[in-house]
Each structure stands twice: as structure tokens, then as C-alpha cells.
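RESIDUES AND SHAPES:
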Amino acid sequence: MGAGHHHHIYRPGDTVVHRLPPQCKLPAVLGFAVVVVATPREMFAAFAGYALILAGVAAAARVPPWFVLRRMAVELPFVVFALALPVIGLGERVSFAGMSLSLEGLWAAWNILVKATLGVVASILLAATTEPRMLLLGAQRLRVPPLLVQIAMFMLRYMDVILDEMRRMRIARESRGFTARDVRHIPVIARSAGALFIRSYERGERVHLAMLSRGYGGSMPMISDLSASWRQWMLAGLLPVLALLVLGVL
């Protein structure tokens, strides 16, 4: 499902990282994230080591730095929250550039920023080297509850359909001279959102009936060979293992 849709976060390639089965990459990234989160915030050298490991993965996958940086905008809420902590934090305070900052707030901001950044970069590299549909099939291989996997599959498949419907509704409003400029136009936007929900719900019912008529019994067939060799498991396991070595040595 969703094979015909283009996802901008995925970067096609034929590298060793791209060829790893998704059921190998998912636990590897999760293990790396656990190691990063468990690292004490005072271990600056360890965080630098983690960044070098991710840089090595990006180089092996041929994912350029600009590709990663452009997709790190998802981290902005964490950045805003972290930047506020030194200002609103309590405890001992230090002066910097004419401002009084909380020392504990500075430590907390560093802790959030460095760990969130490493986690986001690892997730971006995972998504850049694995098609979204394959990620879900990998999760199914890892015995994630089938209902959750199918919900995610349908969401992935029909997200583009809903976005196209939103675009058509916007064009229809603008062709009638409507442009949202202030709060007076909120009721129009709200009615459009309600209409979009109803259309999406009705489309979902039609799709479900069509699937039932074609023999859908509650699970999607596995049409891709996702078998993984022990070499691939070991190669994927290098990511959390290297992170543990960095944590232990530094």
C-alpha cells in the first residue's frame, strides 16, 4: 500500500544501509536512542562520539548533511522549550550577555537539546533509508500488534488523498473570492474542516466495503520478502553496540 506515493523524507539509494531489512533497523535505532537517553548529561565526549557514529551512518547511506538539516525542523518545539529553561529555571544563577540565567536550567536545556537532536537525526536517517511502507512491514515482522500496523498503513496510504482534498477545497474557496485574513473568517475554515471530516469518513467507509468485497479478513497479505540473515542483524546491531562502547570508554 502506498507504493505509488512519493514521500519526501525517503531518499532512494542502493547502499548497505538501504538494503538492511526494516525489522533490523528499527530495533537498532531504538537501542541507540535508549543509550543516548541513558547517558549522563555531563558526558560531553560521549555525545560527540554519538554524533560521529551518526555521521558515519549518513556517509555510508550517502545522505548529505543538507538533507538531514532541512528535516530537523520537527525539533523546533524542543528547541523553544529548551531555550526557555535557563530563563525560567530556579536555583543558582549565572550572568551571560547581561542576562541572569539558571545554572540548572542551562544543564536541563543542554540535556534536552543534545539528546533530542541525536534522536531526531537517527530517526531521519532511518526514514531516509527505508520506505514508509517497509517500515510498517518491518514493525509487523517484529510482532507489533497487527491492528496498530494496519491503522498506520491506511493513514500513510490516504494521507495524500486527504491533503489533495484539502487543496481542492482551498482552491474552490479562493475561486469564489474567499481569502482568510482575520478571526472573522474562522467560521468558514471551521465549516471546511467539518466537511473534510465527513468526506474522509465517507471515503473510509467506501474503501472498507470495497476491501471486504475483495476478501479482506482483518490482515493485509505479506507480499514482500523481509527475511533477514544473521549478518544483517549483526550489521544493524553495530549502531547500538558502538554507542554502548562509546558510553563505556568515555
